[in-house]
Design brief:
Mean pLDDT: 79
Largest sheet: none
Structural class: mainly alpha
Distance between the termini: 134 Å
Helix content: over 70%
Shape: rod-shaped
Radius of gyration: 42 Å
Strand content: under 5%
Low-confidence stretches: none
């Protein structure tokens, strides 16, 4: 069997430093668009996240406000005086049964008060 010698000779020229710098500049210029696009996308994602958090905080605040209003209204209806009970019934409904109950409540409250 015959032996074969293969020799590889490097005939490539080393690029000049000017050419290397020009290629690096072109590469950095080409990548700037992608970097700006990535920054814009990251900014949009962050803004959406902050908007969602603000909306959640607002919804929680409204829920707490509803609870406090409901508690205040319940407290007021439980501690009505005789006149307030009669006037609130007249203002809120035209139901005769409700009016009669309010009259009875006002009468009982009037008898309980010391004179």
């Amino acid at each position: 069997m015959k032996e074969v010698h293969i020799e590889i000779e490097d005939r490539r020229r080393q690029p000049s430093p000017v050419a290397v710098a020009a290629v690096e500049d072109l590469l950095s210029l080409a990548q700037q668009g992608a970097l700006v696009s990535n920054l814009g996308f990251a900014n949009q994602v962050r803004n959406n996240d902050l908007a969602g958090q603000a909306q959640l905080v607002c919804q929680q605040g409204i829920g707490q406000l509803r609870l406090s209003i409901l508690a205040r209204a319940a407290g007021r209806t439980q501690s009505l005086s005789a006149t307030e009970a009669r006037s609130s019934c007249s203002a809120l409904s035209a139901n005769e049964l409700a009016a009669t109950l309010a009259d009875l409540r006002a009468t009982v409250a009037a008898w309980r008060r010391p004179t």
